[in-house]
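A student in our group prepared the protein record below, which I am reviewing. This is what I was given:
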Amino acid sequence: MTDTTVSAPASEGPHSQLGQCLKAARQVRGLTLKQVAEKTGMALSTLSKVENGLMSLTYDKLLQLTSGLQMDIAELFSPTTPQPEPGRPVTARRSVSRAGQGQIVNTKFYTYTYQCTDLIGKRMVPMIAEVRARTLDEFGPLLRHSGEEYFLVTRGTIAVHTEFYAPEILNEGDGIYIDSTMGHAYLNAGSAESAQGVCLCTSEQADLFEQLHRIAKKDAVE
């Protein structure tokens, strides 16, 4: 019975190139070595040695590998540059938000200025929030929505109230990252009439902007 693999010193060029090409092909497909082993039926240890230039493969094993990964055998002998993951195309979207621009929603205790509103279906919603409410009674029910968010104080002092933690006082330059499904509120805790911050909300749900807009519009002042 003949061996299906042939050991080789790591310094040998062809085996090293095969390992590099296998690694590149694996990364293009977003796979781990373990997943490659599962798809091809080859031993994980064998694949690891191949990637590290310590082992070559016989032709039948090369066919087994390429068949399992549904790739052309030539890809294993042509160095490639990893491309974006399948299903994650580069959209090249871009939006510039100038000072004083944005979609403004005024409420009794807040002013929200939504940034980059020309892009629809964003998974991150940036906004500037001017905070005037000083108590939870003024603020009303804690906010909840999908995703997570980061809030950076750019002016004044803000008290962050959350459902499961004691209030946190943030001064200019301080920031907080929270789970947005947890009830939360930002209050003005300084001596000035208002405080201000930049809030970045993100979610896997494509309608995040609509969620946030509906929340803000409930208390909007015409």
The helical segments are 13-28, 33-40, 44-51, 59-69, 136-139, 208-217. DSSP finds six helices and eleven strands in the chain.
